[in-house]
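Hi R.,

Here's the chain you asked about this morning:
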Amino acid sequence: MEMTVPMAVAVASLRGRCSDAEWQSRVDLAACYRLTELYGLTDLAANHISVRVPGEPDAFLINPHGVLYDEICASSLIKIDHQGNILTMPDFHGATYNVNRAGFLIHGAIHEARPEVACVMHTHTWTGMAVSALECGLLPITQTAMRFADIGYHEFEGVVLDEAEKASLARDLGQASTLILRNHGLLAVGGTVAETFNTMVRLELACKSQLAAMACGTPLHPVNDEVVEATRVEFLPTTRRPFGLMEWPAMLRKLDRIDPSYRL
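And the predicted structure, written out as tokens:
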């Protein structure tokens, strides 16, 4: 018996109906969603990755709530402002999707407070949640973890549904590129989608490494503060090229080999 493979969420193409710069951002963000799924960083349809729309400082793109990451394409992303007002709703051919409130509150808070930030990524991985629940937080016990020696911490205030939490989210992130949401998960920001994805993958690796080391039940070998700080500075984008710059074209080629429909 011939089997029919179900199609992903149907959506009308927005190509040609937005600026070239917005379309490129849509393609990059859709690719980031697919890669996040590919690398096992998803929580079903929860969580969000957003990108600021070039030339529109008060607008950003985010995923439709209820669509899985491996279904996201460039045309299915919703454009909203910092207050969550919908600016562009894709045509889902009769299906109804919207923006998750917690998503636009978290992402809107960061985009509004940090105009230089293009992309914001938030995850609920088991490793990120585990480290977020440790009193010690993320320890600088590996070279990868030392990159995040200035990571911020945000105390758990319940599910992020209150506008008042936007101020404390922005305050706790400060000028850092990463934030641990206590008893919740991880957040990363960057000047590009590529940089932000690279940051989150490496932050996730730092969490995995710490949990593996702690699980051994033997003392952890510390590194002195001066070396940790020097290593952190070596990782700064102002010290070397921005993260993700070299890998991103290869990541897109990887996706194109697997399923290029993210570009639709």
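The radius of gyration is 19 Å.

Let me know if you need anything else.
M.
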